[in-house]
Amino acid sequence: MKILVTGAGGVLGQAFQAIQGDYPQHNFTFWRSVDCNLLNDAWSLRLTVGDVAPEAIIHLAAVSGGVGLSAKHPATLLRDNTRMTLNVLDVALACDVAKVIMSLSSGMYPANAPLPLRESSMHDGYPHESNYAYAFAKRLIDPAIRAYRSEYGLNVIGLIPNGMFGEGDNFNLDDCNMVAALIRRFHAARHTKDSVTVWGDGTPLREFTYAKDMARAYMWALENYDGADCLNVGTTEERSVAEIAGMIATMVGIYPERITFDASKPSGPLRKNTDNSKFLALSGFSYTPFLEGLRRTIKWYGETYRDAPELIRTGPKVRDN
Length: 321
Description:
Layout: E1 2-5, H1 11-19, E2 27-30, H2 42-52, E3 56-59, H3 67-72, H4 74-94, E4 99-103, H5 132-139, H6 141-152, E5 156-160, E6 164-165, H7 178-188, E7 196-199, E8 205-207, E9 209-210, H8 211-224, E10 231-232, E11 238-240, H9 241-252, E12 259-262, H10 277-283, H11 290-307
Parallel strand pairs: 1-2, 1-3, 3-4, 4-5, 5-10, 6-9, 7-12
Antiparallel strand pairs: 8-11
Helix pairs in contact: 1-8, 2-4, 4-5, 4-6, 7-9, 9-11
């Protein structure tokens, strides 16, 4: 099968490139924004996608970033992510693409949704105010899937990843995820005796899925799932912020005692765990333990920092594609 993957520069897109050799029956084409601007009108995109002639599209590209970006550019996040969603679906129709995978986000769930977060609660309340525009753009994918399936018979499915980490991640301290930020900060402090401060009291629990696992979950869905219902596909293994910080410190050679927690800073929600039971019942999928995925990521970071530091992405994560 010829598969077009958008968003090839993000951590999940990088993971797809790393595992493609495990799927020799498929032929992958990877696009970043420099290869094709998905915000172009659908007619222009039709010509570009037609040159690839994919049988499947895995849509990972997104305009995304940290809280600062969400606060300054909510209209951009809402407009551009929605435009890309509809453009990809229209182009898939025009080019007779057999199957499309769309990516939602566990960050779209209502701020007061009951835990664990289930797919059925996706539209049952307002998302967190700090990220409402991106959240609504991602939620819109659910009715878009149902509408394009109903009117056009397009085989399009939706997958909901949670937090991700792994080799090739973005390590920009202003808007990268917690795991990437701590890896960079602890690695930079490994030859000093200074304490390293982590915001909050360290008690919140977080789920982080190893990006190569997420890519394999997507591949399972590509080959085996054709349902209209969106699926949570991330791990449900939870670790506290303090545990994660301690693991990273130890792996980079810093005594965990050097970590200080600043309880005057916001800790965030105590939990925001997801329910992946539907996906597991269908797939029987197993995830890399967080500790092992972390070990691989830190090993990659250390070796890349030593041998080719220019390959470590530290630029603003405005468009993760």
